From TrEMBL:
Keywords on record: Isomerase, Rotamase
Record's protein name: Peptidyl-prolyl cis-trans isomerase
Region (Disordered): 1-23
Transmembrane region(s): none
Length: 127
């Protein structure tokens, strides 16, 4: 499994994982929050970084834009819809998402199709 350095409130650094990618969603709480809980279909405000499992290459980061983002869970990839509910504000969670719950199989038209993805998400708010 990959390791994450830094603490909540700072951009996480995700170290390259060992071994084969998981075939199912892996949810790992790095910091357990004590605020309101995210619910399925709710809106969340997050800071996040996403890297490819195979290469460790960062493909997206709200930290790089220096601004958090808010959106409804129902509009996101399945791995986020399944992996964020239950998380509490103030928490940091790592999601390792297989292609079937991310952007689909290789050749699916998205540049991340066929890839297992790792996200580290800081939950800042929920409504």
């Amino acid at each position: 499994m990959s390791t994450v350095t830094s603490t909540s409130g700072q951009k996480p650094e995700i170290e390259f994982p060992d071994g084969p990618p998981p075939t199912e969603l892996v949810i790992k709480d790095l910091v357990v929050g004590d605020g309101a809980e995210a619910v399925p279909g709710g809106n969340v405000e997050v800071h996040y970084v996403g890297v490819e499992f195979d290469t460790g290459e960062e493909f997206d980061s709200s930290w790089a834009r220096n601004e958090s983002i808010e959106f409804p869970l129902r509009g996101l990839i399945q791995g986020w819809q399944d992996g964020i509910p239950g998380m509490k504000v103030g928490g940091r969670r790592q999601l390792t998402i297989p292609p079937e719950q991310a952007y689909g199989p290789a050749g699916g038209g998205h540049r991340l199709s066929g890839k297992t993805l790792i996200f580290v998400i800081d939950l800042l708010g929920t409504r």
